[in-house]
Amino acid sequence: MPSVLPLGDPVPADGSFPPEVLSALASRADKPLGLYVHIPFCSVRCGYCDFNTYTSQDLGPGASHQSYPDTLISELEFARRAYDDAAAPPRALSTVFFGGGTPTLLPAPELARILDAARKLFGFVPGAEITTEANPDTVTAESAQLLAEAGFTRVSLGMQSAVPQVLATLDRTHNPDNVPAAHQAARAAGLETSLDLIYGTPGESLADWERSLEAAIALEPDHISAYSLIIEEGTAMAAQIRRGALADIDPDDQADKYLLAEQLLSRAGYHWYEVSNFSRTPKTRSQHNLNYWLDADWWGAGPGAHSHLAGVRWWNVKHPAAYAQRLHQGLSPGHGREILDAQAKVLEHLMLRLRIREGLDLAEYNALPELAAGGAAPITPQLVAELVREGLLDPGSAEPSSSFPEGRAVLTLQGRLLADAVTHRLLS
After folding, report:
1. Are 366 and 379 a contacting pair, CB within 8 Å?
2. For residue 33, what is the enclosing H or E element?
3. Is the pTM of this model over 0.90?
4. Tell me, what's the pLDDT at 42?
5. 172: which residues sit within 8 A by CB, 6+ positions away?
6. CA-to-CA distance for 342 and 260, rounded, in angstroms?
7. Half-sphere exposure of 303 (CA within 13 A, CB side)
8. Angle at 256 between CA 252 and CA 261, to 5 degrees
9. What is the torsional sign of CA 279, 283, 289, 293?
10. Could you tell me the sign of the dihedral formed by the alpha carbons of 141, 143, 146, 151, in that order?
11. How far is residue 164 from each of residues 161, 169, 177, measured CA to CA in Å?
């Protein structure tokens, strides 16, 4: 089943923002504004997945593939009104990301229609990055060309593995032979490409993972994501592990596979810019995901989608039928929201900056107004030096400079394996 929505304060029926947001919006005119579009449809639900996705038989009355684009566009219209009512400074969208689910289960003309509505309602900055995720089985030369003509700039293919037995364990139904064909179709249409891989699947050997990495590298995509498998409670895979049908994931095995990924990807010219993400050049990094890591703003449209604007986070009702009903009644689809307190802001700033290649600007962090209010202490040079000696932080980056008067905390390769532990150490 999809994951449970968090608790929170109720969202007003008109979607109006709390006073704290209204007063903060004017100071965020220079922050990027992104749009996440959730397409919750899948042909089959994968055993490891706890995303808010649904097969056709799960949808129920009031929700369908055919009606969904109009419902989604009605939320974009609602978002525009709420944004205007807040007297927010004008900001065009710098990124749009269609995720899921499998966005390309909708016909390409329907994806184009949703994108065109976003363009008309918000506008795009020049060179805006516009991405859709895709199952390799759903991309053809014709659909890729239609996406490119509609304004999409990037396709992220869910490859996951090149090994059939690993795909079977993950309940992935795509034909691995279709990955090269889908990649070539996207390339021929002039689209940038990204491949998503998962490592640490029960039963996957190191040789299996090497085979997947080499297959991905051979296609020469612009970007590769390599995510460790996480077993979420409530998923079919969690139940299989609990009853002994599958072996549990092994953190040491996952560490070995991450090290192999770093070795092979860096040798092939891919450079890490976030712990799980590698790109050929800074230009081909995922700007949409960087917005999340750098405290930008985004509106999440679709059932269960999460949004963030000037320190308030909210999330929509989960089921597509309930989502459609709210919007058809002219009501906000929001289910709950929270205003980030000082402690949460400090933690997120530290944790997210530390995951990226540029690292944490220590002077910027130590000057955060929320630091004392959140009960956190400044990061001392002594603590940084200790983590450098342990091989977890890069010594060159830790040195003060004219640009970074207190230096930066940048993870080493060993530090990336222990990113959560380094975060806790810096918070202490």
Report:
1. yes
2. strand 33-39
3. yes
4. 84
5. 46, 158, 160, 161
6. 38
7. 26
8. 145
9. positive
10. negative
11. 8, 9, 10
Q: Where are the beta strands (DSSP E) in 112-153?
A: 124-134
CATH code matching the domain that covers 19-293, chosen among 3.90.226.10, 1.10.10.10, 3.40.50.1820, 3.20.20.70: 3.20.20.70
Would strands 297-301 and 33-39 be described as parallel, antiparallel, or unpaired?
parallel
| pLDDT tens by residue, 403-428 | 999 999 999 999 999 999 999 999 98
- The helix (run of H) or strand (run of E) holding residue 22 is helix 19-25
The DSSP code sequence of 109-152 is HHHHHHHHHHHHHH-EEEEEEEEEEE-GGG--HHHHHHHHHHT-
Specify which residues 35 forms β-bridges with. 96, 299
Q: Tell whether the model's pLDDT for residue 377 goes beyond 50.
A: yes
Whether 56 has a pLDDT exceeding 70, the answer reads: no
Does residue 233 or residue 358 have the better pLDDT? 358
* Cα distance between residue 363 and residue 403, in whole Å: 10
CA distance 32 to 331: 27
Residue 381 token pair: 């040079």
The distance in angstroms from the start CA to the end CA of the chain is 36
- The DSSP call for residue 248 is P
pLDDT tens digits, 340-369: 999 999 999 999 999 999 999 999 999 999
Q: Are 51 and 42 a contacting pair, CB within 8 Å?
A: no
Structure tokens at 124: 């795009």
What residue spans define the domains of the chain?
A: 19-293, 360-427
